[in-house]
């Protein structure tokens, strides 16, 4: 498959659909140097983006959390996503809406005079973890930790927060793993590099409290699904040594959807009935 910079199609850029290969920015774009960028990952199923407006609302909020205002409304972002899907002839796709501080008068840490730019790109994308969706992903345990919310705005889906995730995933892949589980700054279990995590024990579902990492839209959806099924969901701080006592585990995220986990470090998990049920029910929900 061609690189992401060398494809046919259209990308929505600053209010216009442009040829894919011409959707470029200057090398002195502020976001390239200082990570002043926010984004959303969304999936379109059968022509409908799952929870599209929630993603658009979060994109605007992420911009505000890192101190810039995206110059488009939710309705305008929704229209941009729809136009990009149609321009590329896609009904089942991954949707990436993102905004950043561009090149302008400032080229230091401060960049208040630089324009805020925005783009939407869409492409076909299968299972994020490949065949792990069926047999269970294998996760490494990352050495890098999610930062204290007093250090970085953990509820922003901001590019800068993913630097340690990239390093952690590269290390995991070098070990033959699909991903890595990260702890937070206190040593509690947090999440994978780009997905939230759930555990099952004695009929209850346990998931880390999202007080130092992003409270994912898919995470919230799955909690609602479990609650409707009458299954108790316990949101709490989880210590790494507790992994030994959990029976099942899965990851949630727009890209990951619901992916079973078979192993984290030296700990093994069953790809059990509840995990499979939630994965199947989520698949039906997003296509309903």
Uncertain ranges: none
Large-scale geometry: globular
Helix and strand run: EEHEEHHEEHEHEEEEHEEEEH
Strand content: 25-35%
CATH domain topology of the largest domain: D-amino Acid Aminotransferase, Chain A, domain 2
**Name of the CATH superfamily of the largest domain:** D-amino Acid Aminotransferase, subunit A, domain 2
Number of helices: 7
CATH class annotation of the largest domain: Alpha Beta
CATH architectural group of the largest domain: Alpha-Beta Barrel
User: What structural class results from the helix and strand content?
Assistant: alpha+beta
What's the domain count? Answer: 2
Q: What oligomeric arrangement do these chains adopt?
A: single chain
- Assign a percent range to the helix content: 25-40%
End-to-end Cα distance: 31 Å
Count of β-strands = 15
Keywords: Aminotransferase, Transferase
Protein name: Branched-chain amino acid aminotransferase
EC number: 2.6.1.42
Enzyme class: transferase
């Amino acid at each position: 498959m061609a690189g992401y910079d060398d494809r046919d199609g259209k990308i929505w850029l600053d209010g216009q659909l442009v040829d894919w290969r011409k959707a470029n920015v200057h090398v002195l774009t502020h976001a390239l140097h200082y990570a002043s960028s926010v984004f959303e990952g969304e999936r379109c199923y059968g022509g409908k983006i799952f929870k599209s407006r929630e993603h658009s609302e979060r994109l605007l909020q992420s911009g505000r959390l890192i101190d810039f205002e995206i110059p488009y409304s939710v309705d305008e972002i929704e229209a941009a996503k729809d136009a990009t899907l149609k321009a590329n002839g896609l009904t089942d796709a991954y949707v990436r809406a993102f905004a950043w501080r561009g090149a302008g008068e400032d080229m230091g840490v401060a960049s208040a005079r630089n324009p805020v730019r925005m783009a939407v790109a869409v492409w076909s994308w299968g299972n994020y973890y490949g065949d792990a969706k069926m047999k269970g992903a294998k996760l490494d345990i990352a050495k890098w930790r999610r930062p204290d919310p007093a250090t970085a705005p953990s509820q922003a889906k901001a590019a800068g927060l993913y630097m340690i995730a990239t390093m952690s995933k590269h290390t995991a892949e070098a070990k033959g793993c699909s991903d890595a589980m990260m702890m937070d700054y206190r040593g509690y279990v947090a999440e994978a590099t780009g997905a939230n995590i759930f555990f099952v024990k004695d009929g209850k579902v346990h998931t880390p409290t999202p007080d130092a990492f992003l409270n994912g839209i898919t995470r919230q959806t799955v909690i609602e699904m479990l609650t409707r099924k009458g299954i108790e969901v316990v949101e709490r701080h989880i210590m790494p040594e507790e992994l030994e006592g959990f029976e099942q585990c899965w990851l949630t995220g727009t890209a990951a959807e619901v992916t079973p986990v078979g192993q984290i470090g030296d700990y093994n998990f069953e790809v059990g009935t509840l995990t499979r049920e939630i994965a199947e029910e989520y698949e039906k929900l997003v296509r309903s």
